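To start, one record:
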Amino acid sequence: MQTDLLLSAYFGELYGIAFFTTFANKYSDDNHIHKWQLLIKVEQITAIKLKAGLNAINIACPDHDSEMEIKGQRDAENWLNLEWNSLVDTLANWVEPYALRYRQQAANATNYHDLYQLVAEHEDVIWAFLHAEQNDVGSGVTILE
C-alpha cells in the first residue's frame, strides 16, 4: 500500500511536468517564463529521484505516461487565460490539499520515509513558491532556485 502511494506520486510528477510545460509554452505573459522553467525543473528532479528510489525497491516506473501527460496539458489549458495573480491564487488553493496530504503521508510512513519526505518537500516548495508570489510577484523564484 505504501508503495502504491509513492508510485501515484511519481505519476503526479509526470503530470506536473506536462502541466508546467504547457504554461511555459503557451502562457500569454512571457514575464513568467523563468518561473515555469523552474517549476518544470522541480518536477523533473523529483521524478528522477523518486524513480530511482522506486526502482531500488523493484518498482518499475515508465519515463512517460500519455494519460498523465494529456491530463496535465488539458488541465493547464483550462487556466491559460488567467492573469498571473488569479492564476497564482487558483494554483495555491489547488496545491494546498496535496501539500497537506503528502506531509501527512510522510509523517505516517513506516517504510520508505526518505521517498515520502522527498514528495512532501517537493510539494511544500511549490506551495511556498505560490504563497510568495501571492505576496510579492517575483519573490517566489528564490524558493524554487
Remarks:
- The chain has six helices and no strands.
